[in-house]
Design brief:
Elements (H helix, E strand, L loop, with lengths): L1 H14 L4 H13 L4 H14 L9 H15 L15 H19 L13 E6 L5 E4 L5 E4 L3 E6 L7 E12 L8 E5 L3 E5 L3 E6 L5 E8 L2 E7 L2 E7 L3 E9 L8 E10 L2 E3 L4 E2 L8 E8 H12 L2 E4 L8 E7 L3 H12 L2 E6 L4 E6 L2
Parallel strand pairs: 5-6, 17-20
Antiparallel strand pairs: 1-4, 2-3, 3-5, 4-5, 5-8, 6-7, 7-10, 8-9, 9-12, 10-11, 12-13, 14-15, 16-18, 19-20
Keywords: Membrane, Transmembrane, Transmembrane helix
GO molecular function: sigma factor antagonist activity
Organism: Chitinophaga niabensis
C-alpha cells in the first residue's frame, strides 16, 4: 500500500538513509497524503532534532513530547521505548518512531482520516457531444476525452488505488507509479493494467468494438471470451480490437467478447507520423477505408448533430480522408467533394444533417 510506503520513506528521510530516488518518491507521495496539524507537529519536532546533525536519539524531554503526540493520535498510551544509558541509538529510535506512525495509520486509521470510515464518493469528468476535454488526474496522469465520453474515479484515487472507469473514447498519458498500478475498468467484461504508458482506448457503448491502441509503454488487457477471462500483453504500436456482444437477458454492461484481433498500428502518413487512432486529440479526422456509417456516427458525436441518411446503400460505402475538423460545414463540404457520391443539407436550427445519394 502506498501509505505504508510513505511512512517507510519518512523514516528513511529523517534518519538520513534515503537515496535521491527515495526522496523524490517521498515528495510525490507527501503531496498525495495531506498531514493533519498534530502529525505535522510530530514530524517537525523530529526534523528539528535530527536536522541539527544529531547522531543520538532525542533526550528524555523530547522523547516524552514525541510519545505524547503519538499517544494522542491513538487515544491510548504507547508503551515506553527503553533506551540503555550512554549514547542513545539514533537509527534504532527513528526506525521505531516511523514504525509507530505506520502502525497507527494502517492499524487504527487515525493520522489522516479519523476513527470512522467515510463513504467513498466518485468524481466524474464528462465531454458532452460536440466537445472534448483534457484533464490532469491527481497522480499527474493526463487524459484527453473525446466527444460523448465520461471518466470516473474515486476520491481515494492516487492514495490506495489508481482505478478509473471509462465510457467512450480517451487518450491516456499515464504517470509511472510502480507502487500503485493504473487500472481502467470497462464494465465487467474488460480491464486494462497500465504502468507508464501512452495509449488510446475507444469503448463507446453504442459501438460493437472496443479498440485499445498502444503508442508507448506496455499494457496488460484482461477481457471476457465466452465464459472465461483472457489476458494479453500489448507492445508499442499494437492495436487490440475486441468484437463485443450483449448476453441475452443481461444488462448493457454485461458484455462478452466474440472475436479478437491483434494488428500493428501503421502510420496513415509516414512522413508526418500521422497515427489515425489518436489524431482526434489534435482536432483532426482521419478515416482509412472506414465504412460510411461509422464516419457519420463519429460526426454526430463530434458536432452534436443528428444525421438522416436518405439512401441506406450509402452505409456500406468505404471512405478515406484526413482533414481538420473544426467547422461542421467545412468538414461536410470536404467529405462530399472527397467522396463524390453524396450531397447534404443542413438544418441549423434543429442541428440535422440530411444526406442523400448524389444524382
Amino acid at each position: 500500500m502506498s501509505i505504508q510506503r510513505f511512512w517507510i520513506l519518512t523514516g528513511r528521510k529523517l534518519s538520513g538513509e534515503a537515496t535521491a530516488e527515495e526522496l523524490e518518491e517521498w515528495t510525490r507521495l507527501s503531496a498525495i497524503y495531506p498531514v493533519d496539524p498534530s502529525t505535522a507537529q510530530f514530524l517537525q519536532l523530529m526534523a528539528r532534532h535530527w536536522g541539527k546533525g544529531e547522531q543520538e536519539a532525542p533526550d528524555d524531554e523530547t522523547a516524552q513530547r514525541l510519545t505524547t503526540l503519538l499517544a494522542a493520535k491513538m487515544n491510548k498510551p504507547i508503551p515506553p521505548v527503553i533506551v540503555t544509558p550512554g549514547k542513545r541509538p539514533y537509527k534504532k529510535w527513528i526506525s521505531i518512531a516511523a514504525c509507530l506512525l505506520l502502525v497507527i495509520f494502517t492499524g487504527a486509521g487515525y493520522l489522516f482520516y479519523g476513527k470512522k470510515e467515510k463513504e467513498v464518493s466518485f468524481q466524474e469528468i464528462t465531454a458532452a457531444r460536440g466537445n472534448k476535454s483534457h484533464v490532469v488526474l491527481p497522480d499527474g496522469s493526463h487524459v484527453w476525452l473525446n466527444a460523448d465520453s465520461r471518466l470516473s474515479y474515486s476520491e481515494d484515487f492516487g492514495r490506495e488505488n489508481r482505478t478509473v472507469r471509462l465510457e467512450g473514447e480517451a487518450y491516456f498519458d499515464v504517470t509511472k507509479m510502480a507502487e500503485i498500478p493504473f487500472l481502467i475498468e470497462l464494465g465487467d467484461h474488460m480491464k486494462i493494467r497500465v504502468l507508464g504508458t501512452a495509449f488510446n482506448l475507444k469503448a463507446y457503448k453504442q459501438d460493437s468494438r472496443v479498440e485499445t491502441s498502444l503508442i508507448s509503454g506496455s499494457l496488460e488487457v484482461e477481457y471476457s471470451l465466452g465464459e472465461t477471462m483472457q489476458k494479453v500483453l500489448l507492445k508499442p504500436m499494437q492495436k487490440l480490437s475486441l468484437q463485443k456482444t450483449e448476453q441475452p437477458g443481461s444488462n448493457k454492461d454485461a458484455l462478452v467478447t466474440t472475436a479478437v484481433q491483434m494488428t500493428p498500428i501503421e502510420y496513415y502518413n509516414e512522413e508526418e507520423k500521422v497515427i489515425r487512432e489518436v489524431v482526434w486529440k489534435e482536432n483532426k479526422l482521419c478515416f482509412d477505408a472506414t465504412p460510411f456509417d461509422q464516419v457519420l456516427q463519429q460526426l454526430e458525436r463530434w458536432f452534436n448533430i443528428r444525421v438522416v441518411l436518405k439512401d441506406e446503400s450509402l452505409k456500406q460505402k468505404i471512405f478515406t480522408a484526413y482533414i481538420k475538423a473544426e467547422d461542421l460545414l467545412e468538414v461536410m463540404d470536404a467529405l462530399s467533394r472527397s467522396a463524390g457520391y453524396f450531397d447534404y443539407e443542413y438544418d441549423k436550427e434543429n442541428r440535422i444533417v440530411t444526406i442523400s445519394k448524389k444524382k
